[in-house]
UniProtKB/TrEMBL annotation:
It comes from the Bacteria. Residues 171-194 are annotated as: Disordered. This is Tetratricopeptide repeat protein. Residues 176-185 have a biased composition (Polar residues). It comes from endosymbiont of Tevnia jerichonana.
Length: 194
């Protein structure tokens, strides 16, 4: 039996998580994403994997209304970006995306004023035209429209806000945790210490 490399393993576990999320099983999807994150860190995978899996976690949390966790994460990330003081277009866009998620979650949780402030800040950081969803929502808010969760979700889907989408998932690469040989899953204590 061929044992998958650490890189293949975190990729395939994350892909299985995405399949679960698409079926609405976010509890199991989160288990897969968190294991993929742990394995990616353990394998010293490029940061892009950590960032992508974190985005998958945040999406599942958002779709299950776990707003407090997302708000804390986004506030911490906002403070981190502010402390870094980096101003490349990539950093500005990433910082804006974090603030956009914060604004959306505030709107979904019934706090339109905080949502508007976060969305404005997101657009300021990212620049004009970079976050069309935020710009659309700010336009609605300026005109006094109410934005219920169903309307917000439709807008998110139209703007491809979610990265876990049927056209972005390859089920052939998926390996559910239940079929992962235990010998290939590193000890968590060792994963943290490298």
């Amino acid at each position: 039996m061929n044992t998958p490399s650490a890189h293949q393993l975190h990729l395939s576990i994350a892909e299985a998580g995405k399949l679960l999320a698409l079926k609405g099983n976010h509890t199991e999807a989160l288990q897969h994403y968190r294991e993929a994150l742990r394995l990616a860190v353990s394998a010293k995978a490029p940061e892009v994997f950590f960032r992508h899996y974190t985005q998958c976690v945040l999406e599942s949390l958002e779709l299950t209304d776990a707003y407090d966790e997302i708000i804390r994460f986004c506030q911490d990330a906002d403070a981190h970006y502010a402390k870094l003081g980096l101003h490349s277009s990539l950093h500005r866009r990433d910082h804006g995306a974090v603030l956009e998620r914060l604004g959306l979650v505030y709107l979904k949780s019934g706090n339109p004023q905080a949502g508007r402030e976060a969305l404005q800040k997101a657009c300021e950081h990212a620049g004009a035209g970079v976050l069309p969803l935020s710009e659309e929502l700010l336009g609605w808010l300026r005109r006094g429209f109410s934005i219920d969760k169903a309307r917000l979700l439709r807008s998110q889907q139209r703007h491809h806000y979610f990265v876990v989408r049927p056209d972005q998932v390859d089920g052939r690469r998926a390996t559910p945790l239940s079929s992962t040989p235990q010998s290939t899953v590193p000890d968590p204590a060792k994963a943290l210490t490298g």
